[in-house]
Design goal:
Number of helices: 4
Strand content: 5-15%
Number of strands: 2
Length: 106
């Protein structure tokens, strides 16, 4: 996210790593937040996949649910499609994804 405060809690995710800094300096880097592209707000409730993985979400077997119980499958699938279109349009060959691991059942 390269310093853009677009995470669910309006924070960014800093990567402090010399190799990553070299990668950014040597290449044309495109920052893109799929959730924001799909119209999801900053801030938003944290969410997680229930009942499977991303492939199961796409097939309708699993759900993406936030801590308030809202089902977000439609938004997440839109975000995923937007990311794919962006990669195709920009002819992106590699992506560095930002994982977020949150246990919302605490």
């Amino acid at each position: 996210m390269l310093g853009c405060k677009v995470r669910y809690n309006a924070s960014d995710l800093k990567v402090i790593n010399r190799e990553f800094e070299k990668l950014v300096a040597a290449h044309n880097i495109i920052s893109f937040c799929p959730e924001v592209s799909a119209g999801m707000s900053i801030t938003r409730a944290p969410s997680e996949i229930k009942g499977g993985d991303g492939f199961d979400v796409l097939s309708g077997k699993a759900k993406v649910i936030d801590i308030d119980g809202q089902k977000l499958n439609k938004d997440v699938i839109t975000a995923t499609k937007n990311a794919l279109v962006k990669c195709q349009y920009e002819k992106i060959h590699f992506a560095i994804l930002t994982p977020t691991f949150i246990n919302i059942n605490r």
